Amino acid sequence: MSESQFSEGLEDVVAASSEICFIDGDEGRLVYRGYDIHDLVGGGSTFEEVIYLLWHGELPSTEQLQSFRLSLSTERALSQGAVEVLKTLPKTGNAMEMLRTLVSASGLFDPDDGDTSYDASVRMAVRLVSQLPTMVTAIERYKTGQAQIEPRKDLSLAGNFLYMLNGVEPDERDARALDIALILHADHELNASTFSARVTAATLSDLYSAVTSAVGTLKGPLHGGANEQVMLMLKEIGHLEDAEAWITKALEEKRRIMGFGHRVYHTEDPRATHLRRMSQEMGERKGNTTYYEISKVVESVVREKKKLNPNVDFYSASMYYMMGIPIHLFTPVFAVSRISGWTAHVLEQYRHNRLIRPRADFIGIKRRAFVKLEER
Ligand SMILES: CC(=O)SCCNC(=O)CCNC(=O)[C@H](O)C(C)(C)COP(=O)(O)OP(=O)(O)OC[C@H]1O[C@@H](n2cnc3c(N)ncnc32)[C@H](O)[C@@H]1OP(=O)(O)O
Ligand SMILES: O=C([O-])CC(=O)C(=O)O
């Protein structure tokens, strides 16, 4: 294999063809099935509509959306098996690891388990999209020793998530803010977790296995896990007047600043544009803009000194925090959204499958004489 074929971290390597999501990293554009995210958010689209769009390639009509919402809302309850598995997990466990375990276990209790047909995978995708919010909120209530709250069919996916998390009627403005955040996180081409989902699917393994791979990949702090690290950083900074000195020192110490930089965007991440505004609005509405203001200082110093832009994980952190979502649920909330993209990609992979199996640029020793144990 020639050296020119090798790209560290697969940078700029085209590893699949896809019709789902287009990113222009120079212009800072993110497009789902031809629709710019700015138009979807500005035009009042909903997360349910975006899931339909990612899966079917078209926006739904009123009737299609109505029946799609119904099919999602009737699949919200977890299987009894998954509920039992949750009770065996350590309450102090990492929420993403618990989510990964519940996704994996739910596959065994899915009524279509073992059916390898495409139609069965579509039914599994409906269940996973519907049940991830239930899994995440069940994990939180289990961790905090509170009774589980049964999902409601009459609420949107975002509204029902907040309802199951807090046990009270969700504030409409919070539900819409979460709905928009879910739209913004829904898909992002061949990001690391979607790539792992596609690699698993390409062996013709099942949808739950593919999503289990994806959840494990999203957890890492260089990917979806960054949003939790951002909030921990903002809390460590603590006071607006300390922000500039803190971040300047961190950069001098050559620390990696979570929520900044991106493999594909060379300009502002278009999702960050919305999340910055939403973080400010959420802070103002909840009467505390400190974390938004600290974030603005961090952004301006990192931009000036490192020429790095905030990514999707930067302003989502302060926005979720002010909405009252616990920090350890930030990455699980990302999964509640990205499950729409993962399943769209896995279904696309199944439709046009070929095993994904790259090569390694071997840099080790190619041949040595074996020496018996007693002679070493
Ligand atoms: C949903 C998402 O996954 S969005 C990304 C979430 N992840 C984060 O926010 C974590 C922080 N960011 C990063 O680690 C990176 O920017 C990544 C992983 C997102 C992209 O990384 P890559 O494109 O592979 O860039 P790479 O890691 O090679 O870094 C290139 C250079 O930029 C620097 N750099 C990149 N991001 C950052 C950062 N956030 N803070 C400080 N320096 C950075 C690196 O130190 C490196 O500098 P060097 O050449 O002097 O060593
Ligand atoms: O595309 C990426 O590499 C990471 C990202 O922003 C995402 O998954 O949303």
TrEMBL record:
Single GO molecular function: citrate synthase activity
Signal peptide: none
One GO biological process term: carbohydrate metabolic process
SUPFAM superfamilies, sorted: Citrate synthase
Recorded metabolic or biological pathway in which this protein acts: Carbohydrate metabolism; tricarboxylic acid cycle; isocitrate from oxaloacetate: step 1/2
Catalytic reaction equation(s): oxaloacetate + acetyl-CoA + H2O = citrate + CoA + H(+)
InterPro entries per record: 2-MeCitrate/Citrate_synth_II, Citrate_synth-like_lrg_a-sub, Citrate_synth-like_sm_a-sub, Citrate_synthase, Citrate_synthase_bac-typ, Citrate_synthase_sf
Active-site residues, as the UniProt record annotates them: 262, 313
GO cellular component: cytosol
Pfam families: Citrate_synt
Keywords from the UniProt entry: Transferase, Tricarboxylic acid cycle
Membership in a protein family: Belongs to the citrate synthase family.
NCBIfam families, per the entry: cit_synth_II (TIGR01800)
Protein name: Citrate synthase
Source species of the chain: Ferroacidibacillus organovorans
Taxonomic lineage of the native organism: Bacteria, Bacillati, Bacillota, Bacilli, Bacillales
